[in-house]
Prior knowledge:
The structure is a single chain. The protein is mainly alpha-helical and 165 residues long. It has 6 helices and no strands. The chain has one domain (5-125). It has helices at residues 5-30, 41-68, 74-96, 101-124, 132-135, 145-164.
Amino acid sequence: MKGNGALQVIFAFFLGLVVVGFVAIGVATFYPEPSYEIYDEKVFSVWRLVTGIILLVVATIILAISLALPHDQAVISNGVLLGGVFTMVYAVGMTVSAEQSVWRFVVAAVALVVTIGIGYLKFVRRPAGVPAAQSAAAGTLPPDAAARLDHLERRLDALRHALNE
């Protein structure tokens, strides 16, 4: 079934936002921020670092799930992929606000490696079991393409002839 391309993009983007929202609520529920009244800035820095690491792990899992979804469910897969990417951005942002510079670098490096790896697996590598001819579908034409092209050329010639008179 062919759908509206713009609507599919909007849906995938919205699904990505819902995924990152779900992750943010989950992290806030099960690993809440410490109270400002009780703890000092060092505790908050450690909390932000640990939260960033948790988010990094969750983002990696979400990105892996997007790869495991069936090829024919591209809109859902892309929405989940966007959710993983948004969660990865959230993880790096949370970690950058922590004070431990070595750990910030490690989390950012892991995020970079995971993102490049998932991007390669999603967009460069062909899915397993799919022949090269099918994976390069953009370079193939449907069987009736020649007839459709001939019909289009005849219509353009008729239009050109009508405009010249």
